[in-house]
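User: Can you predict the 3D structure for this chain?
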Amino acid sequence: MLRSRLICMFAALSIAASQAQTQPAGAPGEAQPKPIKSFDVSLLDRGVDPCTDFYRFACGGWMERNPIPPDQAVWGRFNELAENNLVIDRKILEKAAAERPNRDANDQKIGDYYASCMDETAIEKKGLDPLRPELDRIAGLQSKAELPGYLAHAHRIGSNAFFEFGSQPDYKDAAMEIAETDQSGLGLPDRDYYLKADPRSIALREKYVQHVQRMLELAGDKPETAAEKAKAVMAIETALAKVSMDRVSRRDPARVYHDMTVADLGKLSSAFDWNRYIVATGAPKFDSLNVTVPDFVKGFNDVVVNAELGDIKTYLTWRLLSTAASMLPKAFVNERFDFYGKTLTGATELRPRWKRCVRSTDSDLGEALGKSYVEEAFGGQSKQRVLNMVHAIEQALQADLQELSWMTAETKKQALLKLAGVENKIGYPDKWRDYSSLNIVRGDALGNSMRANDFETHRQLAKIGKPVDRSEWSMSPPTVNAYYNPQQNNINFPAGILQPPFFDMRADDAVNMGGIGAVIGHELTHGFDDQGRQFDARGNLRDWWTAKDTEAFKERAQCFVDQYSKYVAIDDVHLNGKLTLGENTADNGGVRLALLALRAMSGTNGRAVEGFTPEQQFFISFGQIWCDNARPEVLRLRAQVDPHSPDKFRVNGVFSNMPEFQKVFSCKPDSPMVDPKPCRVW
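Assistant: Here is the predicted structure, written as structure tokens:
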């Protein structure tokens, strides 16, 4: 199923592969949330000049005292808070898992789902039996003509084989949901992993093929047979990678919107019966859809034509095994972790099973679990104070737009209309998702996972042809993240991130503005970055800019591209300034807007803490939400696939562009934290 590709998230990509584990749970409730401070001078490295390396000044103490745990690829303040939320969720789930006659429907579902995931003994005893009907279904395919029916089923239960199909708001009419198909089907993190010819990439592909082989062996193939099959998988995935659109190109909405009839789609891939596939998915009837990447559909057709049926069945088997691995016996879990955890991210140990099961429950039943999380961890006063901050930052953006020297009056008028149309969603949904049709069976871990995928696929497909539900959330309440949705023109802040170090009801405005205030400003700025600016106040893909203003924007955006492309993530790997442009624009704009709002609130007249003025606290607070340590492997991975810059550059890159920062910390003009040609859009 498709999720919105346009949603602009505040935090970096999660490294889900390192979460697979098989260790025992430990005693229920043994862990407790750890206290986290929003502004903590003990985290500073006072031996570092803030005008030389502010990130190290703000975070050096934290970095020294917080080595990366062996089961993590990255360890930072986000992770600290996420771990605390896991502990809270675990407490909720342990209670819900206790079988008792008075459990309500939500508690039954989340409790039995969690208990089934935790029952490793039962999973080991069943072995591959729960997956056997699906494996037999693939083995029983007699011809390529049966692929449409099978893929419709595979996509419903969570496999990403070949392509994705689902619903999305129409780019040209954001009030309505339409059908959409998109590229997919790869096991490596990105198309470029298949195409690069450097020694490191070649070696990684070899390790991937070995991983596929070992998974097929675990499923029953002999080593020599599995080795040949793994090569066939790589051949098919490489063919798909060659026709996949690269990440930078996909950032342009106009390049991923192609309104076609179903008949036109069929002409792109005549070897695959799209009508039969669509009917088999159970989607409502429709006449046209968005074919995101037409060249990919053509390339998929070539694979169907040219690949042997046996090789296609092997590929489908591999995608199924990879999808189901986390709910299979530990041999599959360990093998998956060895590649996706150790090799790709550098994690050295498997995560405790209870953490994985909490995350899995959150993924499949997020709002059922989230309702209890909100009751446990998020109060009404917090929601109102955050909303007040949102309004202050919106006023700061309004003033900024009105005062811009490079934007003409005509475009300013449209920009102000868009800002006025932004909706604010704080904490949790106004109405909770109904999971009553999802059957969760205690003791059936894999079945629960597949049925949850089927439930979500059906929910997404049922939207086709209907008005967009603007009240819906794309993140569960415990999530430590935030996002802007350009097609709904709204900003969204789950309760999970509205905690220290981002937000603290006990903290002064200066500290909260440096934390959650910068997050709010970041998401608002996304509405006016290189991607978001192409959508109007109603969320429609429409050019509301004059040609002169478009050129002025692009000139300023190019400054960010050039600036961040100079930064080195690890060894010889530079950041991709084009890939990270939207997030860098939002980081720079967000901090400035939060500071403007703080000044308007007279927060700069607040109390000094440990010798730091309110504005110094503001900058330190922002720096400290990004404190982290990361393994070389994950830095290399994220430089290739993550639209966010590494945390160090999310701090130093922003502050080097801000005369306000340089004045507050009395930086000399030739200081490393002073860019002689600072970049600024908003």
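Residues 564 and 653 are 7 Å apart (CA to CA). DSSP finds 27 helices and twelve strands in the chain.
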